[in-house]
Amino acid sequence: MFLFGHLGIGKTLLGPISKGLPNRYLLVGTILPDLIDKPLYYGATFFSQNHGSVWSSISGSRTLGHTALFILILSSLTWIKKSKRIAALFLGSAIHLLLDAVSDALLGRDFSESLQTVILWPLLGTKFPDFPYSSLSEHLNIMDRPSLILEELIGASLLIFNSRSMTTETTVAISITEVKNKPDQGTN
Ligand SMILES: [Zn+2]
Question: What is the CA(82)–ligand 1 centre distance, in A?
């Protein structure tokens, strides 16, 4: 799953349990594991010219940000700081891992050998699974898979639908506030 799939589907799935949490942080949360891990891996690959082996543990584009440990740290910080922003990042990141697992299953990837090993890191060893793509462009080449195209289309549609309904809700809320604040002209 790529950008729009995570943003649109992730945000929609979180809808019922994310009421009151800041929208922007929820959206960032839905892509936070990729925002951490992909620059980490491709940065290491670029600088080492050797598939990230400059840091031997960073051997793929799903590493630290895709672990249950990372989710655990975010949930602990939410509880300690009582922060709605961190809670939004925590929920967004958790749904990201779930959607990665579903997307892998649709692509026919072996879940037990890839994402499961990452999620349980470091319980199954400190080495992350090797990533099959040598560059970001090679990674983006899989975008022509029908399931990925469908995920992106559904995600983008949900984002548009959600932003429209949010605009409508805001407009209604402003109208109600204006009516409430309007001086009563019928009495004197
Ligand atoms: Zn991911």
Answer: 26
Ligand 1: centre distance to CA 176 (Å): 41
Q: Which two tokens stand for residue 99?
A: 């959607």
- Determine if residue 82 is left, alpha or beta; phi over 0 gives left, psi from -120 to 50 gives alpha, anything else beta: left
* C-alpha span between 98 and 80 (Å, rounded): 25
| pTM of the model as a whole | 0.80
CA of 165 to the centre of ligand 1 (A): 27
For the chain, the domains span 17-142
Q: How far is the CA of 166 from the centre of ligand 1 (A)?
A: 27
Instruction: Read off the pLDDT of residues 107-162 as tens digits, 9 standing for 90 and up.
Output: 777 665 678 888 889 888 888 887 767 667 777 777 778 888 898 999 999 999 98
So what's the pLDDT on residue 1?
Answer: 81
Q: Who surrounds ion ligand 1 at CB < 5 A?
A: 33-34, 100
pLDDT of residue 116: 82
